[in-house]
Write a structure and sequence with these properties.
Rossmann fold, 6-stranded parallel beta sheet, about 425 residues, alpha/beta, 2 domains
Length: about 425
């Protein structure tokens, strides 16, 4: 099929490359000339394992193209996906839909023949209705159907999530659109991936409800971790004990410094605002937002307390800046809340992250960045682990001990076993253990 993907951000680029790998002919469109030039020269603007090779292979097979000119790709497309950003709107937390609506106007000017227009961007309930109204007003003669098809991609595992999904959600009640969407995802039917057809508004809400529920799980286990520290229990064993219950499940029960990233923070806020607008407040989600914001700041104070209540003049090695491993994304990362508090308290910080240095330079100006974890650790009074990169799990603890000036290791991801750290002579502080 001929697919046009508007937007080459995280969702658009991964989805476009994967659709091309299914055998469709995909054109990715973006107004950012620099980004398109880089993509046409094989440069990938984001870090995602396996994406560079996937893009290269499909470009070479002439199934994947990049351009700034949307007119022909939209006119020739069977399906046009909208995959532009929907950040939190400054001031009120609502999803900012200006880019989505601008694309709707762009599509209206170009579509030819029956076209399925799909919102891949995460949008509040009713956005599909507004997209349809915009296009019908501008092109009353056009044949099209607006469909909701939310993405469920985890950064760091996006290609696997796309190709082996738990489910595919499609919001439409139009039979022609259903058949076309079945054809778009036909390779996944061979793997028996379940497809859930719903109304458009239901589909839009599924995405927000799913992310909010996972945010609740993360925040719940973080609060259990605090309780474990007070009563002398082990949060990892608590998580295993409840996670083996089939009604609960083990995923998203890893205690840590709070959730971040491109989805959970903005999507929980957008859901909360939508619920308020419709007079059906989601009090649990509102509490989760507040508790998670407070938790990130509390982690800075946990570090200060672990260093005797005073960090002024102390050199602290920070391992990990991205909001999670296997990504360079620092949007709403815990590090963005933790590090400014430590700096304000007088700490001398030096940080290392395998992929997020370029983002850190923009978001944490003036932060000293090391080229290796060992360069960060050498001579530091303490080592703090904020992101659970695999390479941090495999550090030579004898070398860590000889490199550090102090003995304090504060592990906000519980990647080490307390007994191992104590055996090596560290003053080890973790979460909920």
């Amino acid at each position: 099929m001929r697919i046009t993907m508007i937007g080459t951000g995280y969702v658009g680029l991964v989805s476009g490359a994967c659709f091309a790998d299914f055998g469709h002919v995909v054109t990715c469109v973006d107004k950012d000339t620099s980004k398109i030039e880089k993509l046409n020269h094989g440069e990938i603007p984001i870090y995602e394992p396996g994406l560079e090779r996937l893009v290269r292979n499909n470009v070479e097979a002439e199934r994947l193209f990049f351009t700034t000119d949307s007119k022909a790709p939209i006119a020739n497309a069977d399906v046009v996906f909208i995959a532009v950003g929907t950040p939190s709107r400054r001031g009120d937390g609502h999803a900012d839909l200006q880019y989505v609506y601008a694309v709707a106007e762009e599509i209206a000017a170009c579509i030819s023949g029956f076209t399925v227009i799909v919102t891949k961007s995460t949008v509040p309930v009713g956005t599909g209705d507004e997209i349809e109204a915009i296009i019908r007003k501008l092109r009353p003669d056009a044949e099209f159907e607006v469909v909701s098809n939310p993405e469920f991609l985890r950064e760091g595992a996006a290609i696997k999530d796309f190709k082996i999904p738990d489910r595919i959600v499609v919001g439409t009640e139009d039979e022609r659109a259903k058949e076309i969407m079945r054809e778009v995802y036909r390779p996944l039917f061979l793997k028996e991936s379940p497809i859930v057809f719903t109304s458009r508004r239901t589909s839009e809400l599924i995405k927000y409800a799913g992310n909010a529920f996972l945010a609740v799980k993360i925040t719940f286990i973080n609060e259990m971790a605090d309780l474990c520290e007070k009563v002398g229990a082990n949060v990892q064993e608590v998580a295993r004990g409840i996670g083996l219950d089939g009604r609960i499940g083990p995923k998203f029960l890893n205690a840590g410094p709070g959730y971040g990233g491109s989805c959970f923070p903005k999507d929980t806020k957008a859901l909360s605002k939508t619920a308020q607008d419709y007079g059906a407040p989601v009090n649990i989600v509102d509490t989760v937002i507040r508790v998670n914001d407070a938790r990130k700041k509390a982690m800075a104070h946990k570090i200060i307390a672990g260093l005797g209540g005073e960090v002024k003049g102390k050199r602290i090695a920070i391992l990990g800046l991205a909001f999670k491993q296997n990504t360079d994304d620092m949007r709403d990362a815990p590090s963005l809340s933790i590090l400014p508090i430590l700096r304000e308290a007088g700490a001398d910080l030096i940080a290392f992250d395998p992929e997020a240095h370029h983002e850190a330079a923009k978001l944490l100006p003036g932060l000293a960045l090391a080229e290796t974890p060992w360069a960060a650790i050498e001579g530091a009074d303490a080592m703090v682990i904020i992101t659970e990169w695999d390479q941090f799990r495999a550090l030579d603890l004898n070398r860590v001990k000889s490199s550090l000036k102090g003995r304090t290791v504060i592990d906000l991801r519980n990647i080490y076993r307390p007994e191992d750290m104590q055996k090596h002579g560290f003053d080890y502080i973790s979460i909920g253990r």
